[in-house]
Amino acid sequence: MGVFDKLQEKAARKSRAQLETYVAPKDRHPVDTSDDVCSNRHGGADTSVNAYRTVVAGPGGSKSRDMLRVELCIAASKAEGMTCFEVEQTLDMKHQTCSARISDLKREGRLIDTGRRRATTSATAMVLVVPTRGA
């Protein structure tokens, strides 16, 4: 058995031990997930609720911070608007994060679909969004 195999075996034993002793924090810290757009998919799984709690941790949370970054980026483009792809490239943000924050901003009425489309590098037509007010 090589060194790598021994390390893998040790990691597997440690993971099994952690899983055996893990107690899900069901109602230890109740979280309002009424605005969690994924709650119907994960059904209240403790890991998903904990992830949601981490992301939505108030004004200093990563969701709020990312929403502000996206809104300011799009506002800087003036009336022309930006596609999700363009915002991703400008902010070096993952597609999943950027798309979710644009959806959040649209749902809150802070961004609107211009009705115009612009092709991306993959020749896919993307929605142009603009802020509803000065950011």
Pick out its properties:
single chain; 135 residues; mainly alpha; Arc Repressor Mutant, subunit A; two-stranded antiparallel sheet; 6 helices; 2 strands; 51% helix; elongated
CATH hierarchy class name of the domain at 61-131: Mainly Alpha
User: What class would the helix/strand composition place it in?
Assistant: mainly alpha
**What does the main sheet amount to?**
2 strands, antiparallel
Percent of residues in beta strands: 5-15%
Would you write up a description of this structure?
There is one protein chain. The chain has 135 residues and is mainly alpha-helical. The chain has a domain at 61-131: Winged helix-like DNA-binding domain superfamily/Winged helix DNA-binding domain (Arc Repressor Mutant, subunit A), CATH 1.10.10. The protein contains six helices and two strands, in the order H-H-H-H-H-H-E-E. It has helices at residues 3-21, 39-42, 46-55, 62-76, 84-91, 95-107, and strands at 111-119, 125-131. The protein has a two-stranded antiparallel ribbon. Strand 1 (111-119) and strand 2 (125-131) form a beta hairpin. Helix 4 crosses helix 6 (95-107) and helix 5 (84-91) crosses helix 6 (95-107). The longest helix is centred in the first third of the chain and has 19 residues, at 3-21. The chain is elongated.
